Amino acid sequence: MTEETWGQVKNELQKSIGRSNFTNWIEPLVFRDLNSGVATFNVPTSFIGNWVSRNFGDQIRHHLNKAGAPVSRIEFVVPTSAAPAAQAGSKAKGDSMVAQQKPTSERSVAKAASAALRSDDSGLPGAPLDSRFTFDSFVVGKPNELAHAAARRVAEGGPVTFNPLFLYGGVGLGKTHLMHAIAHELQTSRPDLNVVYLSAEQFMYRFVQALREKKMMDFKSLFRAVDVLMVDDVQFIAGKDSTQEEFFHTFNALVDQNKQIIISADRAPGEIKDLEERIKSRLQSGLVVDLHPTDYELRLGILQQKVEQYRKQYPDLVLAPGILEFLAHRISTNVRVLEGALTRLFAFASLVGREITLDLAQDCLADILRASDRKITIEEIQRKVSEHYNIRLSEMIGPKRARTIARPRQVAMYLSKQLTSRSLPEIGRRFGGRDHTTVMHGVKRIEELKGHDHQIAEDLELLRRSLEA
Ligand SMILES: Nc1ncnc2c1ncn2[C@@H]1O[C@H](COP(=O)(O)OP(=O)(O)OP(=O)(O)O)[C@@H](O)[C@H]1O
């Protein structure tokens, strides 16, 4: 990749993210080199690197690939001579921040936070939205239909019926996408509303900054003037006592004014460790919906949609039959990985000017395919089995011995033994600390039943297929 390509990409980025974002976040990046698919940029501070990685990483990669640079990952490096600055937290989506600097001081957190506050034109506390995350580009399938329907309802901007809307699910399953989609929709249909989206991490930075600069009143009034507040990845504030406290007050103030709140996390409120009980119960008081792991059909739908998008720019793209089915089958980790695989495949094919065949896909995605080799977890088994028999997950691992609970529990134990490499004691531990002999007994019982009880045999087959999908 040349300086010129980066120049072109910068022009594209300016169009898609707006001038202010561009000046704050993209202009400070200095292209260093491109090696084995990794594009490296110098950044003045790790805060900027983390922010860019989180908020614009996918877009930068997308435009680089479009401009013909085969980039699968982006790294941001703070040159050692640069002054130490803030660490914006460790979570960088896909792309990474290579920190070559001293640890964070509180002062630098405050500095970083003030950069964050300046990040939008309006002076409001929101973070930038990704223009690609809309309802139109969100593919709906069984695993996410409820979350999608709830998000749609909130996006209508009508009277607040459930508050908060709490969306949870594993990495890369579309929580951020749905939240941005709600924000886009509301910005168009209800421009009068003050809609604010930010991550829990950003909430904390702003809070810390306000404390240090003795501007708590400003902070409070800024957040209390919001009509719709969306906080992404709320698990981040677990264990951070004063941030939790402030979050709780903000939350209550907004709910009291009947303002809509939307929260996301990687797990259900009750399962977030080190989160105060009163916050957990507040978070549970509205509608809690989860995004289930993708199934084969949803993955295929997402891939088809991405190809359609891509075809608009590259009408000559030739895909051999069965490629998308192959990818949907083999890459079941998360949607981000699936998208990354497709982007890499397109970039590679356009670089070498070849049709995308199964061989090419296997070759160019070998590492992703290896890493995605399906690993079924006991938690997934417990969840699927509870759903199948319509019992609660807590009952599955709880003490009840009634047949209606004990049988599904034994089925889940049996499947855990069959489909994972966990030992009997390990399985016992995951089932509410049961002894390995209990697990052994459960597994044997199901083996026996399977031989003559058709219903059980059918249940097992169905569950196995859905777990391996
Ligand atoms: N149903 C879907 N249709 C289309 N794209 C999707 C869908 N689900 C996820 N994606 C895409 O997958 C990528 C990851 O999604 P997103 O960032 O929303 O995940 P997340 O649940 O917020 O993950 P994390 O826990 O890492 O924050 C995005 O590019 C998003 O557009």
Task: Tell me briefly what this model is.
This protein has 21 helices and nine strands. The chain has 469 residues and is of the alpha/beta class. The chain is globular, with a radius of gyration of 24 Å.
Could you please describe the fold and organization of this structure?
α4 crosses α7. This protein has 469 residues and is of the alpha/beta class. The chain is 55% helix and 10% strand. It has four domains: 3-101, DnaA, N-terminal domain (GMP Synthetase, Chain A, domain 3), CATH 3.30.300; 142-291, P-loop containing nucleotide triphosphate hydrolases (Rossmann fold, 3-Layer(aba) Sandwich); 296-371, Helicase, Ruva Protein, domain 3, CATH 1.10.8; 378-468, Chromosomal Replication Initiator Protein Dnaa, Chain: A (Orthogonal Bundle). The radius of gyration is 24 Å and the shape is globular. The chain contains 21 helices and nine strands. α9 links the parallel β7 and β8. Adenosine-5'-triphosphate binds at residues 58, 93, 133, 137-139, 144, 169, 171-177, 233, 266, 302, 335-336, 339.
Q: Could you give the distance between the termini?
A: 39 Å
Number of domains: 4
Q: Outline the biggest β-sheet.
A: 5 strands, parallel
Runs with pLDDT <50, length 5+? 82-124
Overall 3D form: globular
Gross CATH architecture of the largest domain? 3-Layer(aba) Sandwich
CATH topology-level name of the largest domain: Rossmann fold
- Category from helices, strands and their pairing: alpha/beta
Hetero compounds: adenosine-5'-triphosphate
Q: Largest sheet, order of strands side by side? A: 6-7-8-5-9
Strand content: 5-15%
Question: What sequence of helices (H) and strands (E) makes up the elements?
Answer: HHEEHEEHHEHEHHEHEHEHHHHHHHHHHH
Got a strand count?
9
The CATH class name of the largest domain reads Alpha Beta
The CATH superfamily of the largest domain turns out to be P-loop containing nucleotide triphosphate hydrolases
Helix content: 40-55%
Radius of gyration: 24 Å
Mean pLDDT: 84
The count of helical stretches stands at: 21
